[in-house]
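Reference record
================
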Amino acid sequence: MTEKPTYEELEKRIQELEHVEYKFKRAEEALQESEGRYRAVVEDMPGLICSFLPGGEITFVNKAYCEYFGGTFEELVGTNFLSLIPESEQKAVMDNISGLKVESPTQSHEHTVIAPNGDIRWQRWTNRALFDDQGKTVGYQSIGMGITERKQAEEALRQERNRAQKLLDIAGVMFVAIDAKGEVILVNQKGSKVLGYEQKEIIGKNWFGNFLPVSIKDQTETVFNRLMAGEIEPIEYYENPVLTKIGEERIIAWHNTILKDDEGSINGTLSSGEDITKRKRAEEALRQSKERFHSIVNNAVVGIYQVTHEGKFLLVNHRLAQMFGFKSPEEFLASVKNIYQLYVDPEERPSILEKIKARGFVDGVEIQFWKRDGQIVLARASVRVIEDKTKGTIYEGFMADITDQKRAEEALKKAHDEVEKRIEERTVELAEANVDLIDLVGRSRDLVGEQVIDLVVEQITLALAEFDQLTNRGNTFFDRCDSRYNHVLDTPY
């Protein structure tokens, strides 16, 4: 049988119970105070807070949520939050929320909602799934914020970028932007076309390792890194080759500017480039052509020159300078200010120009000029006229010194005339001797005898034949001389 507790024991038990009750009340008060603080925090937060069941039924919303969607706590609790989302997005939202697991209980996503006035606005929500002891989802707590202004700014920026990209794409030059790591962050259609890649194949690739020839890669990258480090000033213009997809090198003329972040630090470059490969090749071909031209002109065996209508020399080659007693074209041009200085008869030039004006050229005209030492040189010239847009009327031609040829011609003609004269005189002498011989033979037949006379006549006839052959050989020799001389004179310069 259990003994009854004493008064002291009962009093002690009562005190213990009172103490437990006191602690419970204090805990309840603390909980209420904590809930009050939590509710105050939740209510005062600018963010949208709500709790809902797995099917979407709202169990709690804060003041900001009520104000955003234009309803009271009582009006919103018990409704389905999906009714506030456009139907086209409801499934995607529920799929995101339903995918939350114990091992990954939180997830954020952005979607549109329907404002009280019917406008479509953007929100960003972070959802946390709540689970029971068995891991079954019992509800969700979510916090959201309006991001419509950010989305509008992003859309405006996207449209602005699209407009900028379109402007870049219709530009006739390349545009390439490179970040501080050397990776391409922008390229327009022209740049893609020159490099031979799609834009998506270029963006994100290292510029130096993929689009520059090996011969300049390291040096160019070193300069770029120093530029990013602020060690050197940017170069506004330079030319260098790029490497296309098919391995061809194209020469690009670049104009460059540096890009900076909000703090003013260099974080990349923006370059516009013009493909000047054809121009460079044309310049190189022109350079080589000029070299060949100057080589031909300077090594020609005849004099070549250009002179203005007024008589100023624009070009002379070595042969022409030597023809007039100068060591070089430069010495000639420094000394001879006008072609009229060289004419023995300056009145000849206007007459020659008139002939050129009528036909466009003259060929084989012979002109006497003064040499540097005061001697006369006879030149054979062929000249044509050309019209230059910057230099006006220009006469260019070839000139050969025929002074020695003329002297040889005159000497040859004199020798030819002397031989002709001697042959003519000898022929007359022989004719007279022949007449005398015939008379002598007629009178001597009876004295010497037919046989002896015939022998003498035969010998004389042979002598005359040899003389005729000698005469013919002389004429042939002079004909050949005339032919060769005329061939030299007729050779075009």
Observations:
- Residues 102 and 135 are 7 Å apart (CA to CA).
- Residues 167-280 form a domain with the Beta-Lactamase fold (CATH 3.30.450.20).
- The mean pLDDT is 83.
